[in-house]
Amino acid sequence: MTKKTIVLIGLIVLKFLLHFILISPEYDLQRDEFLHLDQAQHLAWGFLSVPPFTSWVSLVIHLLGNAVFWVKFFPALFGALTILVVWKTIETLGGNLFALLLGATCILCSAILRLNILYQPNSFDVLSWTLFYCTFIQYAKMENTKWLYIGALVFALGFLNKYNIIFLLIGLLPAILLTEHRKIFARKEWYYAVLLALLIISPNLYWQYKNNFPVIHHLKELSSTQLIHINRLDFLKSQLLYFIGAIIVIVSALYALLFYAPYKKYQAFLWSIFFTLIVFMYFRAKDYYAIGLYPIYIAFGSVFLEFKTNQWGKKWLQPVLLATTILMFFPMYNLIFPNKSPEYIVNHQQEYQKMGLLRWEDGKDHLLPQDFADMLGWKELANHVDSVCATLPNLDHTLILCDNYGQAGAINYYTKNKKIIAHSFNADYLNWLRYDKKIVDVVLVKESNDDDKNRKDEIPLFDTVYLADQRINKFAREDTISIYVLRGAKVDINQRIKAEATEKIMNR
Predict the structure, then answer these.
(1) Cα dihedral sign for 84, 118, 341, 359?
(2) In the chain, domain spans
(3) In a 10 Å sphere around its CB, with 0-12 CB exposed, 13-18 middle and 19+ buried, how is residue 120 labelled?
(4) Three-state DSSP state, 359
(5) Which of 76, 258, 295, 322 has the fewest CB atoms in 10 Å of its CB?
């Protein structure tokens, strides 16, 4: 086993170990993770907010037992594979041990580590961006058309994971037109590769068509409720913070792509980063959407810095660069991971506020970072619902109806009673509502901002309506959740649920 292989294995082992110590035990899973896990029970070629790839991974997690270990294992795996792809790219560019170590360390000590702690499509998104760029480097180096087909496969899998990868093409294609590689568009293999990608993603495109393109509705809703609050200058600031320890390496990559002769054949990457960032800023994209851009530039920069430090006879700069990468990340390590208790964060708010970490999607500052608040109170909620349901005579004829997908998914994941299946009119749960059993009782799980706290709308429909319990957690994103019990339905609840669901589906 070579020294390079030992170092690579050591870094990947470290990567996995970090992911199991970065989350304090006070935190549960995050609300999006519950939704993705429940998708394994409703496999389809698409969902309202994401393509199908994550549901396939969720099915594997389910078959492995659905434990938190496996929920956290897969994003960590995708992060480890990103390190591996960067490692192999550095070898392709001619880098040796220092370049390999610098590139891998820059990936490890970056926002990718933060991204990989959550089971969301983002981790595989970064991997697919990096792998696609790697295939283009291979093609640019050898002009072997097999890399066009491999790139088509990578793009298709990335597309089936998250539509964000479309921005990669929007940035890369005009960059290719500005370089000698524009001749790629005259090759028949390019069009065969495009057809291959379209063939692979066509089931999802057909699903979108059959369901009236819910992705468009999702994007409009995202734009009106979240993206509107995004400041373009803050977007750029975040890019610096995400890879603060790798800034020298990324800037060196851009310099090298402009002036370093061995990189002349890769100059499309010089323009691609600017085109992609401009498009992201134009659409007011969330700052983390662009994270997949940078790993490939870290590969370029690491090889260039290794060459220059050797050329200058200043190898002592190499450990300095490695140490700088790690030391610059330490302040971020203490702030961007849920490794501190909610009480600690509240008592040190100024540090988090200074970095903009307390600003949520609504554009306002709150007690905790939004993702952290979204990881609190869920297990507690499930325990409360279990207790309430234990007082009801027949769960086979009880509907548990929640305000949002976070509540429904958390109850389904943490409940100790396998008869309990929570539903919602929110997100994909709207399509998963069941109408095959008679509903006698309903358990309503409502957010604290609910307007009808006296349940005036439901009282005429049931014999008894009462507030059964509340889950209160001042640190959670939903600080108060009320649990109501509606006993003895006087009307056909199934028909009412079906009518309301149909109306919401028609209006989305």
Answers:
(1) positive
(2) 3-333, 342-373, 378-507
(3) buried
(4) strand
(5) 258
Q: What's the pLDDT tens digit per position in 231-286?
A: 677 788 888 888 989 999 999 999 999 999 999 999 999 999 999 999 998 888 88
CA 340, CA 447: separation in Å to the nearest integer? Answer: 26
Asked if residues 404 and 427 have their Cβ atoms less than 8 Å apart, the reply is yes
Sheet holding 462-472, edge to edge: 422-424, 398-402, 441-447, 480-489, 462-472
User: What's the per-residue H, E or C state across 440-505?
Assistant: CEEEEEEECCCCCCCCCCCHHHEEEEEEEEEEECCCCCCCEEEEEEEEEECCCHHHHHHHHHHHHH
Q: Is 260 exposed, middle or buried (0-12, 13-18, 19+ CB in 10 A)?
A: middle
pLDDT of residue 215: 79
Cα first-last separation, the chain: 57
Report which residue type is found at 24.
S
Distances from the Cα of 73 to the Cα of 33, 60, 182, 427, angstroms: 13, 11, 40, 25
Residue 47 main-chain phi, psi, to 5 deg: -135, 170
Task: Indicate if the pLDDT at residue 450 is higher than 80.
Answer: no
Tokens matching residue 135: 């295939």
Output Rg (C-alpha) for the chain, integer angstroms.
25
Runs of H (alpha helix) within 334-478: 342-347, 349-354, 370-373, 378-389, 405-414, 429-432
Taking the C-alpha atoms of residue 398 and residue 445, their distance in angstroms, rounded to an integer, is 13
Tokens, residue 47: 């969902």
pLDDT tens digits, 109-163: 999 999 999 999 999 999 999 999 999 999 999 889 999 999 999 999 999 999 9
Residue 48: the pLDDT is: 87
